[in-house]
Design goal:
Layout (H helix, E strand, L loop, with lengths): L1 E6 L12 H9 L5 E8 L20 E5 L5 H8 L9 H4 L7 H12 L10 H14 L4 E6 L3 H13 L3 E5 L16 H17 L3 E3 L2 H10 L7 E3 L27 E6 L9 H12 L4 E6 L4 H9 L6 E5 L3 H10 L2 E5 L8 H9 L3 E4 L4 H10 L2 E4 L7 H4 L7 H4 L4 H18 L1
Parallel strand pairs: 1-2, 1-4, 2-3, 4-5, 5-6, 6-7, 8-9, 8-11, 9-10, 11-12, 12-13
Helix pairs in contact: 1-16, 5-6, 6-7
């Protein structure tokens, strides 16, 4: 049995979506000869809690928890929120909030916390990691980011103990999409670029979750071409079963209200105005539609819904435990995904594909999302400038659930196992 140390910021009961991938890998890797251990934080105060995820922690897993050293207590005070008030990512990174406190807090976040607001964890995680590695032999270190601070921790421990490091970039690092149109000083950017390059140069192998991100990084760093690959985000098969029957829209009773559901956070830059316009027109023509949002919406998105007079037709559910999210997906008639970042293959897309409902996607030049939808016959990727009838355009889709099953995380864990064995063989 080989040993691997996973470094991940989020840990149950955190309800952060990025937690599901490492949890699944930890669950399935022992089947392929890998015994994982975990270095994580003692508490994530930014994210909502999902207590159901605690039962997903594998038994006999060695877990090292260290102080997160988060700045969010001070951040809440600075913007005038109570300590118990939840922080919403879609609001924290919004460009439409013009208050001086918000703008100053955003500037501090972008320019003083490098690579991200979780960098305080580095100062407790590195000493704890060193102590653990002095008494435990590890064959590889795997880090999950964002937060990309996790990669800095893995880099430091890898250099100190000469252990192969495998960073997994769920999102790009320096030019992550929500930095676009935000002011970051050249000095701050140069430090972040320095860290990114050093981590990737030292890495034995780098994993991306989309082909477009991998291609983008190959152009940026030619040295990655011989030591990088793609493992898709995927989904957990155990959450999906026949107890949630999929209903077809064919010959459906048009007198019944149809639900369009979006799961996850929606940011300013993802605002699908063409959809709101289409929904408004359809409702005016007598079609019964309802927009249902799980997660958070940015101020700009909420304003658009108000401008199109759609608020009476909206349900704002907020955060739900993951098991309840899956149930909501099955209850919906259409599933909405916003793929405004052309390198982004949203994690929820794999869950949508597995559910087998028609998918309405928005994004410009997102080749991978368009290809996934076409190959699975699950929906259409619409341009933000689309002016036609969206519901007429997708009425003939017939989702292929068997296509989705190739992306189960049990299969992805098998791929990760093979990649890890390959790099330690070369070491």
């Amino acid at each position: 049995m080989k040993n691997v140390l996973f470094i991940t910021y989020a840990w149950p009961p955190s309800g952060k979506a990025t937690l599901h991938w490492p949890l699944a890998m930890l669950q399935h890797l022992p089947k392929h000869g890998w015994q994982p251990s975990v270095l994580t934080t003692d508490e994530d105060t930014f994210s909502h809690k999902d207590e159901s995820l605690v039962k997903k922690i594998p038994k006999n897993l060695h877990i090292i928890k260290t102080s997160a050293n988060e700045p969010f207590h001070l951040y809440r005070k600075f913007i005038g929120k109570k300590d118990s008030s939840p922080l919403l990512a879609s609001e924290a990174m919004s460009t439409t909030n013009t208050s001086l406190r918000h703008k100053l807090a955003l500037w501090i976040r972008l320019n003083l916390f490098i690579p991200d607001a979780r960098v305080g964890w580095y100062f407790s995680a590195v000493p704890a990691g060193k102590k653990f590695l002095r008494s435990h032999t590890m064959d590889a270190i795997v880090t999950i980011g964002p937060p990309h601070s996790a990669h800095l921790i893995g880099w430091k421990l890898s250099k100190k103990f000469n252990i192969p490091h495998v960073p997994i970039l769920i999102d790009p690092w320096v030019d992550i999409v929500y930095y676009h149109n935000l002011h970051r000083s050249k000095f701050s950017s140069s430090i972040d670029i320095f860290f990114e390059r050093k981590v990737l140069q030292n890495a034995k192998h780098v994993i991306f979750v989309t082909n477009t991100t991998l291609s983008d990084y190959h152009k940026k760093y030619s040295f990655l071409q011989e030591k990088s690959s793609v493992l898709y985000w995927g989904y957990n098969e155990e959450y999906f079963s026949d107890r949630f029957p999929t209903k077809s829209l064919e010959n459906d009773d048009n007198s019944k209200e149809k639900i369009i559901l979006h799961a996850g956070n929606m940011y300013d830059y993802q605002n699908p105005i063409a959809l709101w316009k289409c929904v408004k027109n359809e409702i005016a023509n007598g079609k019964k539609l309802r927009l249902r949002f799980l997660g958070t919406l940015s101020p700009a998105v909420k304003k658009s819904l108000e401008e199109f007079s759609l608020l009476p037709f909206c349900d704002f559910i907020g955060f739900l435990p993951y098991e309840n999210i899956v149930e909501e997906l099955y209850k919906a008639d259409y599933l909405l995904v916003c793929a405004a970042e052309k390198r982004h293959l949203p994690g929820k897309l794999f869950e949508y594909l597995r559910v087998g409902k028609p998918i309405i996607a928005f994004g410009d030049d997102n080749v991978e999302v368009a290809e996934m939808l076409q190959l699975s016959n699950s929906g259409i990727l619409f341009s933000h400038n689309f002016t036609g009838n969206i519901f007429d355009a997708i009425k003939n889709v017939q989702p292929n659930i068997e296509f989705a099953k190739q992306f189960s995380r049990e299969k992805i864990a098998e791929g990760l196992s093979g990649m890890l064995r390959s790099i330690i063989t070369k070491t």
